[in-house]
Amino acid sequence: MDFGEGAELRALREAVAAIMKPYGGTYYTRRASAGTPTDEAWAALAESGFLGVNVPEAYGGGGGGIVELAAVCEEAAAAGCPLLLLLVSAAISGEVISRFGDDQQRRRWLPGLAAGSHKIVFAITEPDAGSNTHRLTTRATRDGSDWIITGQKYYISGFDEAAAVLVVARTDRDGDRRPADGAIPDRTRLSLFLVPTDAPGLVAHPLPVSAGLPEKQFTLFFDGVRVPADALVGEEGDGFRQVFHGLNPERVTGAALCVGIGRNALRRAAEYATARRVWDTPIGAHQGVSHPLAVARIEVELAGLMTQKAAWQHDNGVPAAEASNMAKYAAAEAAVGAVNQAIQTHGGNGMATEFGLVPLWGLARLLRIAPVSREMILNYVAQHSLGLPRSY
């Protein structure tokens, strides 16, 4: 067992850290406060080819996997500029299209993802479905060779920055059985569709959130959106398998983002605690300050190891659901704890805009809820890891 990273991965981390250094601190804080995209940071990574590290080389990418993409996510966040859309555009959409898309879809969408010329966001959540994908109501029905999509999606990140949205929709056939009470069946037929964001009938309404983030949230309305047959990704009705192939990478990269946030917050807290003197010694010399930071460092480091394990399992074809969920849980908890303690270490300055910690706390707190809540992860571990009875 080797816990050391190879020279190529270390070089990747160092390169990303150097590229992202100008985009931490003041840059990210201002973008988060204004709710404006981090376009320059995204472009800088694209110029060096790091946005497409997990895209096959045949389509302009680096030919790596989630191990490499997670490293990019972590190092960008550790530099102070966490890029939330890497989770949906590079991780989910990139992985799903690479694995299940046909050659035409790959040639149309993957080179742009790798080059950073466009983004593809992901639309699965709905107002009344929550975490229960069996209760999705957005529907795609055939009309000749086309598909007509009708429904609503909720909390869709970065729609305003995207060229397309990967939509999860029901494609139940007319003959599919329905329970007598009209409830949605346990085994819903889902399919995935690539829908251009400017498609007629697709309307996006901003969804205001209190957390200061560069990325905006949206509610999407599909009012009879017509897409051609080649918008369908893979086989009709194969959506569950496709979705979960994308959700594990999302959870791993979300965990990596959290690890990076934790690293950044703890570095800044340690620097402040070393320099800050209220009486004769730096405040970091007091165990009341140093011990909570040490605990936070341990938790971030442990989360990082679990994240690396989950990424390796995904890339090597080992079932990665358990590790991905555990990594996401551990990293989100660690990030919230690290940023919270960094704010406490700064005292009143922790709430000051110039120190830029509150936007990191908002994102870390969001990642404790999404893309999968801590409670649903605990349900998964209780049921699948411990063999306990299902609670829902």
From TrEMBL:
**Residue stretches making up the Acyl-CoA oxidase/dehydrogenase middle domain:** 122-222
Recite the lineage of the species: Bacteria, Bacillati, Actinomycetota, Actinomycetes, Frankiales
Query: A GO biological process this protein is involved in?
Result: fatty acid beta-oxidation using acyl-CoA dehydrogenase
Q: Which InterPro entries match?
A: Acyl-CoA_dehydrogenase, Acyl-CoA_Oxase/DH_mid-dom, Acyl-CoA_Oxase/DH_mid-dom_sf, AcylCo_DH-like_C, AcylCo_DH/oxidase_C, AcylCoA_DH/ox_N, AcylCoA_DH/ox_N_sf, AcylCoA_DH/oxidase_NM_dom_sf
Q: Which residues form a coiled coil?
A: none
| Acyl-CoA dehydrogenase/oxidase C-terminal domain mapped to chain residues | 237-384
State what protein this is by name. Acyl-CoA dehydrogenase family protein
> Which cofactors?
FAD
Q: Which UniProt keywords apply?
A: FAD, Flavoprotein, Oxidoreductase
The record's GO molecular-function terms, alphabetically, read:
acyl-CoA dehydrogenase activity; flavin adenine dinucleotide binding
Any one GO cellular component localisation term in the record: cytoplasm
Record-annotated Acyl-CoA dehydrogenase/oxidase N-terminal domain positions: 8-116
Q: Which SUPFAM superfamilies match?
A: Acyl-CoA dehydrogenase C-terminal domain-like (SSF47203), Acyl-CoA dehydrogenase NM domain-like (SSF56645)
Top-level taxon of origin: Bacteria
What does the similarity note say?
Belongs to the acyl-CoA dehydrogenase family.
